[in-house]
Design goal:
By secondary structure, the chain is α/β, with parallel strands linked by helices. It has eight helices and eleven strands.
Length: 251
Amino acid sequence: MTRQQIAPALVPAFAPHGTLRASINLGNPILADRGPAGGDPVGVSVDLAYAFGRRLGVPVELVVFEKAAASVDAVREEKADLGFFAVDPARGEGLLFTAPYVLIEGAYLVPESSALTENGEVDREGTRISVGSGSAYDLFLTRAIEHAGIVRLQGASAALAAVREGEVEVAAGIRQLLEAEARRAPGVRVLPGRFMVIQQAVGIPDARGTAAQEVLASFVEEMKESGFVADALERHGVEGALVAPAAHSPS
């Protein structure tokens, strides 16, 4: 794939203050996590941010958040110039997105003693599902769940703890996190399969314009096709995530 060239006139659309401010969500360890000994964040989203900064020829500043909702708000309010988060209709206002670069499975965690054995059994009266408030799976389940109740908590850790403490019957989250929780200590298990596919993309404030969106979208496609995204996932030891197909692919 030919290396993308970015017109100098478009650089201010991404870095109006001379620095590319990248909103990084530490609430999703597939995308980013704290560095060793509490150092700078590391992860595929961080690698992409620095790669795009190099392409623009500007320095990069990481604006770090613990929750996806706060990361999204920072970009929408132009306190950051771009961010890495799941595409969802509820997040569309004020933002322009690329196609996804990574696909992540959303799954359910239940107590070992639960009678639930498959995802289709979760949406029933009397079932309470804990989620991290404002997360991609919160937004999805808010639309999809018809009978069960949704308990919104501050972050994934609180949502997982609610299952162990008997406050809810089910926790929803990223499969990798749920499987790690099940390995950490006995008493919980992950239901097979997935209830959704989380499409992780890059977003910018809509005020930056469609020309900037097209440039960023082309960059993301180049990073997927070149193997950059796959290499970053491997380098950071990420399991349970797939490189998204090319935007023009029918799949």
